[in-house]
Amino acid sequence: MLAAMTLPIPPMKVRLPPHFCLLALLCLLCVPAFAKEPLIGELTRVDRQYLERQRATIDDIAAASFGLRFSGNTTRDLALLQRILDQGLVTAQQTRHLQAMGVILGDLLAADLGMHWVIYEDELGRSHALRYKETEHILFPVTMISRRREVGNTTPVAEIYARAEAAMRKVIPPMPFTGP
């Protein structure tokens, strides 16, 4: 009678280069960030109230300091926002006030570009944003002034507006019959 014989199989040792392990780990960590699609929704009543309070905050500063209110006239309102900054009425440390100025900036962009306020929610959080119609073209004007000022960047408000407008004009289809 023949007996079955088993030979021991030595364990295999596979040595992966260290950079391969690091790359694999990074890929695993990044997957959740890319897996979730952003959610874009309409403003709630609370969101609308928040934006109104932000507008009122900056409008009150302009009225008390200069006897002027924001009117919706782009050139005039951009100059008034700049004057508030130049006079030091809102400083780099006043994030909430700087973001309130961003709401005014957003209102001007919305009116001039046919955009509307929405809530944009992704893995980083929930933000007030401007959206062009029902497209994926989004601007985040609330932080356009604050994120610059907080790091010492004194780009003029009119230039911030112009850059945002130019970026959107590149992706917004031209209106019919607006040519020469």
Order of helices and strands: HEHHHEEEHH
What gyration radius follows from the Cα positions, in whole Å? Answer: 26 Å
Tally of contiguous helical segments: 6
Q: Fraction of residues in helices? A: 40-55%
* Unreliable runs: 20-28
**Main beta-sheet strand count, sense and barrel state:** 4 strands, antiparallel
Structural classification? alpha+beta
What's the shape? globular
Strand order, main sheet: write it out: 1-2-3-4
As a percent range, the share of strand residues is 5-15%
On the 0 to 100 scale, the average pLDDT is 86
β-strand number: 4
The separation of the N and C termini measures 102 Å
Structure description:
By secondary structure, the chain is α+β, with helices and mostly antiparallel strands. It is built from six helices and four strands; from the N terminus they run H-E-H-H-H-E-E-E-H-H. Strands 1-2-3-4 form a four-stranded antiparallel sheet. The chain is globular, with a radius of gyration of 26 Å. Mean pLDDT is 86; it is low at 20-28.
Produce a short descriptive summary.
This protein has 180 residues and is of the alpha+beta class.
Key features of this structure:
alpha+beta; 180 residues
List the helices and strands and how they pair.
Elements: H1 18-35, E1 39-41, H2 45-66, H3 74-86, H4 95-113, E2 115-122, E3 125-132, E4 138-139, H5 146-149, H6 157-171
